[in-house]
Design the sequence.
């Protein structure tokens, strides 16, 4: 596997393990507890990531299939445009500039761990499958629509990096909640 893709694989495996650790041993009340009004619970962080991740995984799957059909192969190293690198820096934790989530990605509060965690883990498996499928493709030339504005497309490599950064961002948010759970 290409080293860049191997790095993404490791990141998504860490994300999977971190989410399981965050939810381990919590009651439903603790999983859904909000530290303050207007803040998200662990449940809401994972539900948000699941919602966004499903859209991203679908877009990646389509882009990878199209790239395979069109023979967009490459061996790298891959260099990404400055604006994609900037977007990645802004997404990585710690949060420098908070973003408002689009309404379609705002989770419903009060969902059970038995519904949220398995779905989140399924999305992580989808990312891992697409990382394997992407091996041998040109990670810069393959373009993937963003989940928020579909007309804006990122390179496949930047999409995977940004998806992992977005997940780390909200897992860090959930970890802060976990540290305050009663």
Sequence:
């Amino acid at each position: 596997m290409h080293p860049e893709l191997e790095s993404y694989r490791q990141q998504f495996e860490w994300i999977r393990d971190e989410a399981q650790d965050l939810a381990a041993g919590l009651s439903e009340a603790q999983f859904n507890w909000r530290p303050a009004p207007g803040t998200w619970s662990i449940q809401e962080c994972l539900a948000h990531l699941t919602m966004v991740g499903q859209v991203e995984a679908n877009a990646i799957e389509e882009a990878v299939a199209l790239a395979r059909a069109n023979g967009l192969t490459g061996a790298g190293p891959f260099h990404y445009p400055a604006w994609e690198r900037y977007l990645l820096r802004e997404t990585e934790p710690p949060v420098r500039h908070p973003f408002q989530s689009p309404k379609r990605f705002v989770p419903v509060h009060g969902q059970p761990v038995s519904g949220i965690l398995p779905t989140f883990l399924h999305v992580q498996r989808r990312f891992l499958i697409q990382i394997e499928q992407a091996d041998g493709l040109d990670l810069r030339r393959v373009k993937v629509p963003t989940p928020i504005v579909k007309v804006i497309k990122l390179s496949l490599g930047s999409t995977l990096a940004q998806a992992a950064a977005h997940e780390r961002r909200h897992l860090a948010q959930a970890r802060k909640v976990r540290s305050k759970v009663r």
